[in-house]
Write a structure and sequence with these properties.
The complex is a heterotetramer, with 2 copies of chain A (114 residues) and 2 copies of chain B (138 residues).
Chain A lengths: L1 E7 L4 E9 L4 H13 L4 E12 L1 H8 L2 H6 L3 E5 L3 H10 L6 E3 L2 H9 L2
Parallel strand pairs in A: 2-3, 3-4, 4-5
Antiparallel strand pairs in A: 1-2
Chain B lengths: L1 E7 L4 H13 L6 H22 L7 E9 L2 E8 L14 H7 L6 H8 L2 E6 L4 E8 L4
Helix pairs in contact in B: 1-2, 2-4
The chains are: A alpha/beta (114), B alpha+beta (138).
The structure holds adenosine-5'-diphosphate (2 copies).
Chain lengths: 114, 138, 138, 114
């Protein structure tokens, strides 16, 4: 089960993920991010505090936006990943390519630094 | 002891697969992280079978059997679709994954990084993929 | 007031170019970051001319002229090698840069992000590339 | 002028950059990183505290290793970038793809987290 809440805060777009992302629902994650990109958001946060699982289908969704993020100068940070979910990013070395932060404070700092 | 599960080829089965595997692995002498990893790898292979070999045709079935032999956990996944040998599959470059924006292409990489050994056999009709994790390896 | 510099086509000249530009920009009413950016962009174009158009042949020369007109800083770079119109250049995808491991391909991207306007002219013999920064733009 | 010092600490490889990286010397940076990769280092730090300038030639060197870092599970962090040099990474959005940390403590933490 995956639950996705999206909202537009004053200075950034926020997507809250709850539950599990796998091949059966990664398209929902994709649509949420795509919507945020189409709305011309330049600062995007993903709250993964309540994300309990992610398979390669979910990782692939994030990876598929790296090109757009760079072209459109979109800053993108995922925060709150639990140890196991974080570990999946680590196995593939994707934590080197996608910004992961422990909590929202650190994520916002990353979003607006320099 | 052996544990068996039959999945029909629908992506909704993946959550059930995870539940099944959590139960099976519950008392195994491996860390929670290793359990998590192993569940992920088995799911990746099953998801590929469901999606790529069986086009999400829910009339098709795949079976999973989990066995503990000595220090090994063996996950045997059988199907009878067109055979796909993931040992022969060459993982894409990271740059390709990014460039093609293809929202996939990371599954087999994960399986290979997680499992200690992978075996594949096909008799032209039935395919068997065996994923092996050595229990004190990590 | 105009400032001029002639560079011969050797990569060692890039440091001199930066020194020259720092001097020229010293008292301009733009932030230090903008100065840094603008120096970088001019260097990128000159480096490309030195390397790609003139094969680091130190007998070849390129000239740079810097001018302030109204609120614009204009960097005019002239050479007489084979003309290269960076306006027509299509920047590569990030995934390609990563995949090809080519250790380059980011220069023109930087120039286009930094400058407010780029002009290019060639009469078949001499080429002129004009990089324009509006002084209160950032 | 670019000065490069490399050293093998107990748990990571360190490359200290001083001066300016441009097209005239980026090959030296490339050789230093390549050497560290060939020595099978899995944890690499770049100390950029005294790096005053970087042009696209230098950025390109870093980018050209992302594939290797991922394939070889090499963790790679650059720290100490001054505001101007950091800004160059930002312009191209490369700060999203290459780990940049303010100082050595934060860099080591990043290198060894989870
Ligand atoms: N069981 C299978 N049958 C047919 N093709 C497969 C199978 N498993 C994987 N493939 C092929 O290998 C590719 C890579 O698989 P994978 O790494 O799991 O990524 P993804 O499935 O997300 O594309 C797939 O896109 C597919 O073309
Ligand atoms: N002045 C030039 N003459 C010929 N080719 C050029 C010139 N400038 C750029 N190019 C071509 O455009 C490509 C991209 O340039 P650039 O973005 O600056 O990256 P890099 O020079 O690092 O490869 C170069 O690799 C080269 O093929």
């Amino acid at each position: 089960m995956l639950q996705i809440e999206t909202s537009h805060e004053e200075k950034y777009a926020l997507i809250v993920l709850k539950g599990e992302v796998d091949a059966s629902n990664s398209v929902e994650l994709d649509e949420a991010i795509n919507g945020m990109v189409e709305d011309q958001n330049t600062h995007m946060l993903i709250d993964a505090t309540d994300l309990n699982y992610i398979s390669s289908a979910g990782l692939g969704v994030f990876m598929s936006y790296l090109e757009d993020f760079q072209e459109k100068s979109i800053r993108f940070v995922i925060f709150g990943l639990n140890d196991k979910v974080l570990h999946v990013f680590h196995i593939l070395g994707l934590d080197q390519l996608i910004k992961l932060k422990p909590d929202k404070v650190a994520a916002l700092q990353e979003l607006y630094e320099a | 002891m052996k544990h068996r599960l039959t999945l029909y080829c629908d992506k909704s089965q993946l959550a059930d697969l995870r539940n099944f595997l959590s139960g099976v692995l519950k008392d195994k002498p491996i860390s929670d992280t290793t359990k998590f990893e192993v569940i992920l790898a088995v799911e990746e292979v099953c998801a590929n079978l469901i999606i790529h070999s069986h086009g999400c045709n829910s009339k098709d079935k795949i079976t999973l059997q989990v066995q503990e032999i000595d220090d090994k956990l063996i996950f045997e996944i059988k199907d009878s679709g067109k055979s796909f040998n993931l040992l022969e599959y060459q993982a894409p470059l990271l740059g390709d994954v990014i460039r093609e924006k293809r929202k996939g292409g990371l599954g087999i990489m994960l399986v290979k990084k997680i499992m200690d050994k992978i075996e594949f056999e096909s008799n032209g009709k039935d395919n068997t993929c065996r994923l092996i994790k050595i229990m004190d390896s990590k």
